[in-house]
Amino acid sequence: MAETRTRPERRTSEARRRWEGSGEPLLQIRGLAKHFPLQQGIVFKKTVGHVRAVDGVDLTVDRAETVGLVGESGCGKSTVSKLLVALERPTAGEILYKGEDVSQMRGSALKDYRREVQMIFQDPYSSLNPRMTAGDIVAEGWAVHPDVAPRKGRDKRIRDLLDRVGLNADYANRYPHQFSGGQRQRIGIARALAMSPELIVCDEPVSALDVSVQAQVMNLLEDLQTDLGLSYLFIAHDLSVVRHISHRVSVMYLGRIVETGTDADVYGHPSHPYTQALLSSVPVHEPALRGKGDRILLSGDVPSPANPPSGCRFRTRCWKAQDVCAEEDPQLRDRGQGHPSACHFAEDHQVVPTTDDLPG
Amino acid sequence: MAVEQPAPPAAGVGSPGAPTPAADDGLGGGRGRVLRKVLGDAKGVVGIALLAVVVLGALLAPVLAPYGPTEVNFETPFQRPLTVGYLLGTDDLGRDVLSRILFGLRASLQVGLLAVGLAVVVGVPLGLVAGWWKGVDAVVSRVTDLLLAFPFLIIAVGLAAIGGASLGNAAIALGVAAIPTMVRVVRAETLRVRSRPFVDAARTMDASGPRILATHVLPNAGSAIIVQATIIMPTAVIGEALLSFLGLGIQPPTPSLGIMLSDAQQYLLRAPSAAVLPGLAIAVICLGFNLLGDALRDALDPLTVPARRRRRGKAAAR
Fold it and tell me: Which of the residues A22, A293, B151, B288 has an alpha carbon 20 to 30 A from that of A115?
C-alpha cells in the first residue's frame, strides 16, 4: 500500500522541517492535560470544579514502534486517545506530531494530520454505520481525502484492503450486521488503513472480542506494522495483550503515568507499587507456578479524578505510603531501578513468577 | 460499489446460513435493493396498489368520471349506490358521487403531498442543523416551541384572511402545523446518532459537519422521518376536510373529500352513502400511505430480511 501513496507533498512547515533533521520521535506528548469542567445550574452555568481526566502525561511514539498504555477503567486512557485524534482539545500541554503541535493545527494542516493519524475503536458494533456497506465504510475517508486513492481504482483498492485485513473481498457489499465481532473489527482496521496512516491509535481494539479472535486481530496488527511500518499507540486494560504487542509500555493511574519502560522493564522489573499490584493480579497460566507469586490486594477504590489526593495519587491505596507521599508529588524518573517510575520508594520487585523460579 | 447485481434467481438462494458472496441474496447493497424489498413485502404491495388506484383515479378523473364534478341534476337527488347511471349514487343536488370523489381525490392528494413536502423540506434540515450545532439549536428549538403552542387553525384563519381561502393556503397552514413535530423528531435522531462512535470515526478523518449529517445522520434518521411523514399525510388529508368544512380551504362547488363529507352530514340519515364513500376514500389514501411508509422503513433498514425470503428460510428450516 505504501507504494500507492500518490499524495503530493504539502508545503512543509518550519517546525516539520526542523523535526525531519532532528531525529526526534514521530509523536511527542508533553505535559498533556484535559480537565472537564463540572457545571451546576441550568440556565446560568457555574463551574464548580474540574474532572482531571488527564493530568500531565508524557509519552513518545517512534516510527514503526508500538507503545502500550495500560491502566484500569477511568484512569484517562481513552481521553488520551481522543486528544490524540483531535476530537478534544487539551487543557494544557502539547502533542507534537512530526514537530508540530496538534492543538495549534488548523485547516489543511489538521486535515493532513487527521489522515496520517487514524484510530481503531473499542466497540466493533457501534463504530460502524449500520446503514453502510463494508466497502462504503472502508472508502469513507476518500471522500474527504480524495488524493489518497485515485477515483479510478477505488473498487480494486477496497478489495485489496479487505483482503489485506483477512476478509473475503466479495463481502464489500455486505452490511456490518452480517459480520462477526472480529470481522467487524477488521473492517474498522481496513477503514484506518485506507487513509495510508503513519500512526494508528488503538483504543482497546480487542477488549470487546473473544480471546481466540483477540489473538487473530493482534497478529493482524503486528503483520501490518511489519509490512507498512506503522506506529501504534495501543491502549488497553489487559496486561497480557499489551505485553504481547508493545515495544514500550506506560502504566497510567488517575490521569498520570506512574511507570514507563520497555516491556521487559515494566513486566520483569516493576518498581511502582501500582504496577506491581496490577501485574500480580494477572492469572498465571503455568500450573506449576501458581501460588508462587505474591498476590497484592489493593484496598479501597480509585479516588475521584475531580478531587485527586495530594502528592502521590496512589498513596491512598499504597502499602508503602509515608508522610512524604502526601506532601511531595513524586516525579517520573529513574531512581536506580533502570527505568522511570513515579514513586518515592520505587524498587524492583518481581511479582510475576517465571520458570527460573522453579527448582530444577 | 454500486454495481447493479443481477436479479436473484427465483428460488436459487437456499440455506440462509451459507455465506454466499454474491450480493443478490437480498441482503447486499445495490440500488435496486430497496425497491425489491418493498415489493417483497405484503405491506408494500398492498400500499402501492391502493395508492396506484387513488393516484390513477385522480389523474384520470376527467376521463373516468361519467359526469362533471359540479354538474347538478335536480331530478335525481339522493340516488342510492348502484343505481343505473349513478354507480355510487347522487347527493342532495343530484351530483354524481363517483365523479365528485374522483375529482375530490385530486384536491386531497395535493393538500396532503404539499403539506408533507413542506414539513419535510423545512423540518428535516432545521432538525439536522439544530441537532448538530448547539448555537442554532437554541434558536430553532425556541421557535419550534412557539409554533407548537400556536393552534394551527389560527394559522389557517390568518392565511385565509391574507391570501383568501384556497387549496394552497390550506396546505401551507397544515404543513406549517406539521413542521414543529418534524423538527423535533429529526433533532432527537440527530442527537442520538451524533453520539455514536462511527460519527467520531468520521470526525477523526476530518469529515465536515454537513458531510457527516448527509452520510451518517440522515440515513440513520431516515426511518423516523418516514414514519413521521406517514403520520403527517393522513392528518393533512383529514385537516383539509376540517378546513374546507369551516370554509377556510377549498371553496365549493369545487369538490374535495372534506367538502363532500361536510355537505353530506346534513342528510346523513337519508343518504348515508354520500358521507360514507368520501370517508372511505380518505381512509384508503391514509391506509395506502401508512402501508407504503411501513414497507419503506423496513426496506431502508439493512437489518430486516425481505419478508418473502424470511418465509422461504423458515420453510427450508422445517
Answer: A22
Copy the grid coordinates of residue A101. 503541535
CB contact under 8 A, A128 and B198: yes
For B201, the closest of A121, A172, A173 (CB atoms) is: A121
Task: For residue A56, give the amino acid letter.
Answer: G
Do the chains contact at B29 and A135, CB–CB below 8 Å? yes
Q: Is A84 on the interface with B (CB under 8 A)?
A: no
CATH number for the A25-34+53-246 domain, one of 3.10.20.120, 3.40.50.300, 3.40.630.30, 3.40.50.970? 3.40.50.300
- Indicate yes or no: CB of A114 within 8 angstroms of CB of B302: no
What string of H, E and C letters represents the secondary structure of B165-234?
CCHHHHHHHHHHHHHHHHHHHHHHHHHHHHCCHHHHHHHHCCCCHHHHHHHHHHHHHHHHHHHHHHHHHH
Given a cut of 90, is residue B140 above it in pLDDT? yes
Residues 80-119 in B contacting A (C-alpha not used; CB under 8 Å): none
CATH number at residue B149: 1.10.3720.10
Q: Which residues of B touch A143 (CB under 8 A)?
A: 207, 211, 215
- Report residue A281 as a C-alpha cell: 493480579
Q: Is the pLDDT reported for residue B3 higher than 50?
A: no
pTM of the entire predicted model: 0.81
ipTM of the complex: 0.85
The chain-wide mean pLDDT, for chain B, equals 81
Intervals of chain A under pLDDT 50: 1-8
Instruction: Compute the nearest-CA separation of A238 from chain B (Å).
Output: 22
Nearest to A87 among B28, B200, B208 (CB): B200
The candidate with the shortest Cα–Cα distance to A120, out of A213, A227, A193, A220, is A193
Whether A358 and chain B come into contact, CB under 8 Å, resolves to no
Question: Which percentage of chain A shows pLDDT scores above 90?
Answer: 45
* Interval A218-256: pLDDT, tens: 999 999 999 999 999 999 888 888 988 999 999 999 999
